Structure formats: structure tokens, C-alpha cells
Structure to design on (146 residues):
């Protein structure tokens, strides 16, 4: 387990290191939180690293195990986002991981009756590290059937 402390924020990575896309996501999230501290006053923010294939997975999304769970707890709402930073070049447009952004809203609706006074908002994001230029050429090839 490796721990880093910077500006009062402790980051612990265990058991494996972050890949380039994951590290970029964590760095950008930290920079955003640091630059917008007022937005997060009175709220708790947790970023959890999900264990691959043994952590939190979703059968509905083709056994999707997102890399991170971002939980923002406010007095009235709990925002729980499942985030997977990766290149999209290896996924098809109809991949269940990509479609999970819609499927997760069904889970959200089922959770609401048991959430008490706090609303629960669930989200799923695939954050692409694929540069737009490479992504655009990939789309063209797929649309052409190659």
C-alpha cells in the first residue's frame, strides 16, 4: 500500500498502481476539487478504487466493474457515480458498459423507496483517454464496417 499526502488530501493506492488514464482522472478530479472548494463546503466526497472482477460489479452491464466509485454526500442527496477511465477504441457502440448510463437509472428508481429522506442519484461514466482525432477515425472505420 502506498500513501501520498498533499494539501491535506491523503491518497492511498492499493494493491496496484493506477494506469495512465486512471491517474489522469484522479489528478483532474483533485485539481477540480481544489479549485472549487466552495462547491464542496458542507458535503463529503469519497473516491473509492474498485477491485477488478471481485469488487462492485454490474451483471446488467456485461459484468462491468468500474474502476472508481465517486460518492458525494450532501445533506439532501447522495450522488454515486461509477467511473471507468479508459480508451474507447476497444469497445463497440452498443457495449453494455457504454449503455449502463441508461440502465443505472432503473437501479436508481428501485433504490429510491428505501432511501428515506435522502434522494439517491446514480450515474455511470466511461471517460475516454482516446484523443478525439483517433476517436473520430475509429468511428469512421466502424461506420464503414471495417
Amino acid at each position: 500500500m502506498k500513501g501520498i499526502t498533499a494539501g491535506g488530501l491523503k491518497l492511498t493506492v492499493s494493491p496496484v498502481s493506477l494506469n495512465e488514464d486512471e491517474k489522469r482522472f484522479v489528478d483532474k478530479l483533485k485539481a477540480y476539487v481544489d479549485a472549487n472548494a466552495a462547491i464542496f463546503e458542507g458535503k463529503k466526497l469519497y473516491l473509492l478504487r474498485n477491485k477488478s472482477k471481485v469488487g462492485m460489479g454490474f451483471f446488467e452491464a456485461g459484468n462491468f466493474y468500474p474502476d472508481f466509485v465517486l460518492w458525494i454526500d450532501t445533506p439532501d442527496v447522495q450522488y454515486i457515480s461509477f467511473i471507468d477511465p479508459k480508451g474507447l477504441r476497444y469497445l463497440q457502440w452498443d457495449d453494455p458498459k457504454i449503455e449502463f448510463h441508461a440502465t443505472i437509472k432503473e437501479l436508481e428508481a428501485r433504490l429510491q423507496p428505501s432511501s428515506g429522506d435522502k434522494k439517491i442519484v446514480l450515474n455511470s461514466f466511461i471517460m475516454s483517454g482516446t484523443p478525439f482525432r483517433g476517436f473520430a477515425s475509429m468511428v469512421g472505420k466502424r461506420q464503414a464496417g471495417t
